[in-house]
Amino acid sequence: MSFFGKILSKLGFGDQAAGASGASAPATPTASPTPAASSPAAPAAGQATAAPATASAAPAARAIAVVDVVAQLESRAQVKLQKLNWRTSIVDLLKLLDLESTLDARKALAVELGCPADKMADSVQMNTWLHKTVLQKLAANGGNVPAELLD
Fold it and tell me: Residue 120 and residue 110: Cα distance in Å, rounded?
């Protein structure tokens, strides 16, 4: 798994997709027996019940796909003993996710995300670029990240 893939996983991006698939699959078998049980009594009522269930399941699956990145990180920050400023520091963001935050790890992440060579030569510039880019990529992958964190 890529380093950025680990970040996505820690924030539940992969879990949300699996959860949406898992939630949709059980909902269909559960919905099928209900109309079948209703069918002998009232076929029209069973069909009418199945249509709203399907319509309500689709929006729920879409809603699950969005990950509230800020809520996830704030929740993690509340239980940490160390005060971590994930909003401005890539090191603190990685620590909050219990990922390696060493310079070598950050360089590997920067290379993976395509950091320009001139920024790689200066760790402060690289860290600034990396923090902004990670948040932008989280947003691009379906994360709910406020605009003020993306600038």
Answer: 8
